[in-house]
Write a structure and sequence with these properties.
alpha+beta, four-stranded mixed sheet, six-stranded mixed sheet, Heat Shock Protein 90, 15 helices, Methyltransferase, Cobalt-precorrin-4 Transmethylase, Domain 2, about 425 residues, 4 domains
C-alpha cells in the first residue's frame, strides 16, 4: 500500500519543470521522494514516455539545481525520484523552497535569511557591508578597543588598524563586514536603524512614564545604556565598610552589564525589533530578538552549558576586549551576582523567538514566591509580615480559618525555605521574615 502525501512524499501525474520546486524543497528540508505517474491519492495515472523521462529528469535536475538524486523506473512505469537533504542551500530560478507538511513553501524575508544562515554557516555579522568603508568607522572606539584588548592581544598596540581588522576577520579583500560597522561604526543607524536599545520606566505594562533610545555602535551602546540605567532609572543604597563608602545599585551592576552584553551580541539583527529594557517598580526586564540554539535549552542557562553565540564575530571581539568569557559563564555570573546581593535568582525565558531576562528587586515579590512553591496562604502571610512584622500560630489560624496542624505545616514550610524564622517557645513563639532584625 502506497503512503499518503506527507512531509517526505509527493505524487505527480506527469513531469513538468514545476516539479523542480518540490525537489529543491526536499533538498532544503529533510529529503524526500517525488513519485511521478500517480495522482494525489496514489493511483496510477498512466505515465507516457517513461523511459525518456528516466534520462531527462536527472539531467534536468543536475543542470537546474546542481544536485544528482536517485531516479528509478519500476515495472508499472512509475518513476521515483529520491532526494537527499543538502548541506548547502538549493535554489530554483533564484528562489528557495522548504517542505512543510505536504506543501512546498517559498522562503522570503527573515525566514529566508535565517535559512541561508543555517545552511551556509555564515552568520549575520560575517556578511559583507558593501555600503560602508573606512570613513564610517569611529577612530576613538577603535583606540579604546585596542586598550581593552592589549591583555589578550599584546601586539595590538603596535599594529596598523587595517592589519588588526584583517587578523580579527572583520575585513576581507578590502570589504568591511557587518561586524566591523556595528562594532566600530560612526553612524551605525545609517545602515541598521533598528540596532538600538530602548529603555523605559513602566508603571504598568501599558503605562510608560519615561523613555530613552540609545544609539551608536555596540561599544557606545553598552557604556551609555549602563550609565543611563545607573544615573536615571535605578536607585543606589549607600553602605559603609569602616570608612569606605559603597554605592550599591538596587540590581547588581555586574549582572546588568552581563545581561546587556548578552542582548547586544546574541541578538538577531535580521529582526527589525529593538532591544528593550523595561523598568517596573519591582522588576527589570531585558528583551531581545533571537532564540537560543537547539543545543542550549533555556533550562541550561543556570547550569554549566555550551557557548554557541549567534553572532560569532561580535562575541569574539567582546571577548578580546575582556568584556566576556569564552566558556558560556555569563548567565551563571548573572545568577551568582543577584544571589550574592540577596535578590531572587533572575528568570531566563525564551518565547516566540524572543529572549527575556527578568531581574527581581524584592525577594518577597509574588512571582518569586510562587516560583518557590508557596501556597496562597503562605504568600499572603509574607505580605502580612512586611507590614505587621510578626505573627503567632494562633493569629495565623485566625487569619485563614484553618487548624493548628495546617498552620504549623505552613509556617514550618516557610522556615525550611529560609523565608521565615521563629523566636520564643510554645505559645510565646512568634514568626518573623528572615531579613527583619
Amino acid at each position: 500500500m502506497l503512503k499518503e502525501e506527507s512531509q517526505t512524499v509527493e505524487y505527480k501525474q506527469t513531469w513538468r519543470n514545476e516539479c523542480l520546486k518540490v525537489v529543491s524543497a526536499f533538498a532544503n528540508s529533510d529529503g524526500g521522494a517525488l513519485v511521478i505517474g500517480l495522482d494525489d491519492k496514489g493511483n496510477p495515472s498512466g505515465l507516457k514516455n517513461a523511459k525518456r523521462l528516466l534520462e531527462d529528469i536527472p539531467n534536468t535536475i543536475r543542470n537546474k539545481l546542481g544536485i544528482i538524486p536517485s531516479v528509478k523506473l519500476d515495472k508499472k512505469n512509475i518513476i521515483k525520484v529520491d532526494v537527499s537533504p543538502s548541506s548547502v542551500p538549493i535554489s530554483y530560478n533564484g528562489k528557495y523552497y522548504l517542505r512543510s507538511g505536504s506543501t512546498v513553501q517559498e522562503l522570503r524575508g527573515k525566514e529566508l535569511a535565517d535559512f541561508l544562515t543555517r545552511k551556509t554557516g555564515v552568520t549575520w555579522d560575517e556578511a559583507f557591508e558593501d555600503r560602508a568603508n573606512w570613513d564610517y568607522l569611529d577612530e576613538s572606539t577603535i583606540e579604546n578597543f585596542k586598550r581593552f584588548a592589549v591583555d589578550r592581544i599584546p601586539s595590538i598596540v603596535t599594529e596598523k588598524n587595517s592589519i588588526i581588522f584583517k587578523k580579527l576577520n572583520l575585513i576581507e579583500n578590502r570589504h568591511l563586514k557587518r561586524a566591523a560597522v556595528i562594532l566600530f561604526g560612526n553612524e551605525v543607524e545609517r545602515f541598521y536603524s533598528h540596532a538600538c536599545v530602548k529603555i523605559g520606566r513602566f508603571l504598568t505594562d501599558t503605562d510608560i512614564q519615561t523613555t530613552d533610545i540609545v544609539k551608536g555602535n555596540l561599544f557606545q551602546q553598552l557604556g551609555n545604556v549602563l550609565e543611563i540605567l545607573r544615573t536615571k532609572y535605578l536607585r543606589s543604597e549607600i553602605k559603609y565598610e569602616d570608612i569606605h563608602r559603597r554605592d550599591i545599585l538596587e540590581y547588581p551592576y555586574e549582572a546588568l552589564r552581563e545581561a546587556v552584553i548578552n542582548a547586544l551580541i546574541h541578538r538577531d539583527y535580521g529582526s527589525f525589533s529593538q532591544i528593550q529594557i523595561r523598568i517596573y517598580s519591582d522588576k527589570l526586564v531585558i528583551m531581545n530578538a533571537g532564540g537560543l540554539p537547539p543545543e542550549v535549552p533555556v533550562e541550561s542557562l543556570k547550569t554549566e552549558h555550551l557557548s554557541k553565540p549567534r553572532n560569532k564575530l561580535l562575541a569574539e571581539i567582546f571577548y578580546y576586549a575582556g568584556f566576556i568569557e569564552a566558556w558560556g559563564r555569563g548567565t551563571l555570573k548573572i545568577v551568582e551576582e543577584c544571589v550574592e546581593q540577596g535578590l531572587p535568582e533572575p528568570d531566563f525565558i525564551e518565547e516566540n523567538g524572543v529572549m527575556t531576562v527578568i531581574f527581581y528587586k524584592d525577594k518577597w515579590n509574588k512571582e518569586n514566591l510562587k516560583n518557590l512553591g508557596l501556597n496562597e496562604r503562605q504568600i499572603k502571610v509574607i505580605n502580612y509580615l512586611k507590614e505587621k512584622v510578626s505573627i503567632t500560630n494562633k493569629e495565623y489560624q485566625s487569619l485563614f480559618s484553618i487548624t493548628d496542624r495546617t498552620a504549623l505545616r505552613d509556617l514550618n514550610g516557610l522556615i525550611t525555605k529560609g523565608l521565615v524564622r521563629k523566636r520564643g517557645e510554645k505559645k510565646g513563639t512568634r514568626y518573623f521574615l528572615t531579613h527583619v532584625g
